[in-house]
Design brief:
With about 60 residues, this protein is mostly helical. It has 5 helices and no strands. The protein starts with a helix and ends in a 6-residue tail after the last helix.
């Protein structure tokens, strides 16, 4: 997600506001410490106009 955020020239704070989450949430997702809800994942994918699979890789661990 960090790459897509950079491609759109957005800070974590700006993206968080557009998605209706906190900057800490964006940071945690980017660092891999937090998996977003399915609703948020789809919201992010729609925002960046990509498929969810382009932003997130499912890991069965």
């Amino acid at each position: 997600m960090k790459v897509y955020r950079a491609m759109h020239d957005l800070t974590q704070e700006e993206l968080a506001k557009k998605l209706g989450v906190t900057r800490a949430t964006v940071n945690s997702i980017e660092k891999g410490r937090y998996d977003p809800s399915i609703k948020l994942a789809f919201k992010m994918a729609r925002f960046f106009a990509v498929n969810v699979e382009e932003l997130f890789i499912y890991d069965e661990k």
